[in-house]
Automatic annotation (TrEMBL):
It comes from the Eukaryota. This is Uncharacterized protein LOC112690621. It comes from Sipha flava (yellow sugarcane aphid). Residues 1-152 form the Mutator-like transposase domain.
Length: 153
């Protein structure tokens, strides 16, 4: 095609902008989806303080298949979805690996300033439970909703 390649610096800049915009959009949409879930009030599904109680579905994935052995995935993700609205109201990711940090370590250099996505040092098998726990913890702050029932996939 005789077209020049994008420089690494420009690529990093564009990548960072796209990530930030997509991340912001995802969180805004989850907040909107949480408002939709408040239809529980209309159905009388509230606790003694008047907070709506809803059923949620949680499903997750790991970065590799385990086949009942070697549960050592480097990444895991969970989505919490309103059972009635079928909309995502929370998601979380756990990463045990950062390619920038690993490259610096392999070369014996100091890690350069970067956005590091490594946020997990425990067992891979605990990633999903930790993300679900975080989602339940944030349900009141994010949506003022109580996740009363968990439907697992």
């Amino acid at each position: 095609m005789n077209m020049p390649n994008m420089s690494i610096k420009l690529y990093q800049h564009v990548h960072s902008n796209i990530f930030k915009n997509l991340n912001d959009l995802a969180w805004r949409e989850m907040l909107i989806a949480g408002k939709d879930a408040k239809s529980a009030i209309e159905k009388g599904e509230i606790n003694h303080l008047g907070r709506p109680k809803i059923a949620v579905v949680a499903d997750g994935a790991w970065s590799k298949r385990s086949y009942k052995t070697k549960y050592n995935a480097l990444s895991g993700v969970i989505c919490i979805i309103g059972a009635r609205t079928k909309k995502v109201i929370f998601f979380g990711v756990r990463n045990k690996y950062c390619c920038v940090c690993q490259l610096a370590e392999n070369c014996g250099e100091l890690t350069q300033k970067h956005v590091c996505f490594k946020n997990w040092n425990s067992a891979s098998t605990a990633m999903e439970a930790d993300i679900i726990f975080e989602g339940f913890k944030q349900s009141l702050d994010m949506h003022n909703i109580i996740y009363a029932q968990l439907i697992g996939k």
